[in-house]
Design goal:
mainly alpha, two-stranded parallel sheet, 10 helices, 1% strand
Length: 363
């Protein structure tokens, strides 16, 4: 009876602990990129810290507004307002940097998954090749040195596969850490392979969007607005002619700076669009090389089995395929990172980060 009660208690505790863990994880164990970014922006300690800094700045500003205006200098208000704006910008910047970092880690995992798949297939091919080599060696058709060469090749394939598995597990830990979870939480990705999805870009639409949402343009626009306010304030006070001239000069420089920033953004976008087209062409070429390497290795395998080519020729074909696989994964990885950076640079996720800043303001 006591054992039965004890067992019931243990089962209950295990179930409760499972519920707690599920609540603590906060996200499904089958993760997509959007979920990872959303979780990170909600729970990462850097974001929490930036939100609290904003909360402190706004609390201080509210305190000053409640004070007797006769006891508070105007500059104190202005300084407090500036601190709030700086805290908002810091939070916005932290969100953007974290989102880009999460996307980077996510793509690295996809890269590692593809590497695991490639090295697993390579090991399987090596095992089949080893079986053929053993038969040839047992029948005295090849020398011992060739047999040992194939043994070494199989060992290398197994080692590469194990290293890829280790690399994948390490990247899982890094993504967990990046989004603010314990590194030992296991998960899988909704994306099961690293595919190439070319970015469809309408130059005019993208440029218009960037001119509206680019953080560099926003910063220049804020500087311009501040220069206008400063000039208006100087004109309303008994300022000297020199002070007015200085304020007018600052306004003129701010207008020039905004115009130059807009032009730089336009040029940057055109350059990036050209780069995407070049990368797209490169990926298509690499994929073609990969397909040729696969076909070539299939032919070499059949010829080796028939005794028409040497083992060194077969292993050379295997190496060519490995190099093509590595290059293919790398160019797709680079393309996806470039897409992420491009979206950030034009301010694509600006509304998301702005909503987080507003939520932080309401804390």
């Amino acid at each position: 009876m006591n054992k039965l009660i004890l067992s019931f208690i243990c089962i209950t505790l295990l179930l409760c602990s499972g519920i707690i863990l599920a609540e603590d994880s906060g996200v499904s164990e089958d993760l997509g990129l959007a979920e990872c970014i959303e979780y990170a922006l909600k729970y990462h300690p850097d974001i929490e810290s930036a939100k609290f800094t904003l909360f402190e700045a706004e609390t201080e500003l509210k305190r000053l507004k409640l004070e007797d205006p006769r006891t508070i200098a105007q500059k104190e208000y202005e300084d407090a307002e500036q601190v709030v704006e700086q805290a908002k910008e810091s939070l916005r910047e932290a969100c953007m940097n974290l989102a880009l970092n999460v996307e980077n880690k996510y793509y690295q995992i996809l890269k590692e998954i593809q590497t695991v798949n490639n090295t697993r297939l390579s090991q399987e091919r090596a095992e089949k090749q080893m079986a053929i080599v053993e038969i040839k060696f047992d029948n005295g058709l090849i020398p011992k040195k060739e047999f040992e060469t194939m043994q070494k090749s199989l060992q290398d394939a197994k080692k590469a596969y194990n290293q890829a598995l280790f690399g994948l597990e390490t990247m899982r830990m890094e993504l967990n850490l990046t989004i603010g979870r314990d590194i030992d939480v296991f998960f899988t990705l909704k994306d099961k392979e690293f595919v190439f999805e070319p970015l469809e870009i309408d130059l005019e639409t993208v440029t218009e969007f960037a001119l509206e949402h680019s953080k560099d343009i926003k910063s220049s626009r804020d500087t311009l607005n501040q220069a206008k306010e400063d000039l208006e304030l100087v004109r309303q006070t008994e300022a000297s002619e020199l002070d007015i001239l200085k304020a007018e000069h600052q306004l003129k420089m701010a207008e020039i700076s905004l115009q130059r920033t807009r032009q730089q953004v336009i040029i940057q976008i055109r350059s990036q669009v050209m780069g995407f087209q070049s990368s797209k062409d490169e990926i298509e070429e690499v994929n073609q090389d990969l397909e040729e390497a696969r076909n070539n290795l299939q032919v070499l395998s059949l010829k080796y089995e028939a005794g028409l080519v040497s083992l060194s020729q077969l292993l050379e074909g295997e190496q060519t395929l490995k190099e093509a696989e590595i290059e293919c994964v790398q160019v797709i990885y680079d393309y996806n990172l470039a897409k992420a950076s491009f979206n950030q640079s034009i301010g694509k996720d600006y509304s998301l980060y702005q909503s987080i800043v507003e939520e932080g303001s309401d804390k």
